[in-house]
Design brief:
Strand content: 25-35%
Low-confidence stretches: none
Largest sheet: 3 strands, mixed
Distance between the termini: 114 Å
Number of helices: 3
Helix content: 10-25%
Radius of gyration: 32 Å
Order of helices and strands: EHEEEEEHEEEEH
Length: about 170
């Protein structure tokens, strides 16, 4: 019995397998990394659609195994522009995602974190960045006119270390 080979390109692997089984054809699979097609999507087939083959013939399907993984260097310490240049390099094909800012002891505007932070990530992934806003400003309490004990207590409670020095004043 002769069977017309159907078009299977762009179907997912399971759907293509089911269609071939219905026609009495045998699927064989070859995997290939693909930057643009989802894992499991049929990229190519042999023989091509429209050919006539005997029932029981093997149809070779080239199936995407997903995008290749790319190296993601450490972005911490880079400026936003430097990090964007690394991400959007043609060899990586990565996308800058959201940028959030947090207080940090690191220089304002430098990358202090990113997600995902793996060494290798899929080509085309989105990477979210966290930039430093610099140190968090703290309000120093006004202790003028207070007793030494009360002033030290107020300063310590505010998160500072009080240093007491003795000075002579005529006031």
């Amino acid at each position: 019995v002769m069977v017309d080979v159907p078009s299977l390109v762009r179907m997912d692997r399971a759907e293509a397998t089911e269609r071939l089984n219905e026609l009495g054809l045998v699927p064989e699979f070859v995997r290939r990394k693909d930057k643009f097609e989802e894992r499991g999507e049929v990229l190519d087939q042999s023989p091509l659609a429209g050919k006539t083959v005997e029932e029981g013939s093997a149809i070779t399907l080239t199936v995407s195994s997903g995008p290749p993984s790319v190296a993601l260097p450490t972005l911490v310490g880079m400026s936003l522009a430097e990090a964007e240049a690394v991400l959007t390099d043609d060899d990586r094909g990565l996308v800058r995602g959201t940028v959030t800012r947090e207080y940090s002891l690191k220089e304002e505007g430098t990358v202090i974190g990113y997600e995902p932070s793996d060494n290798r990530i899929p080509w085309g992934s989105t990477v979210d960045l966290t930039l430093s806003k610099g140190p968090e400003p703290l309000e120093v309490p006004d202790v003028a006119g207070m007793s030494e004990d009360k002033a030290v207590g107020r300063i310590n409670t505010a998160g500072f270390a009080a240093a007491v020095g003795g000075y002579y004043s005529d006031d």
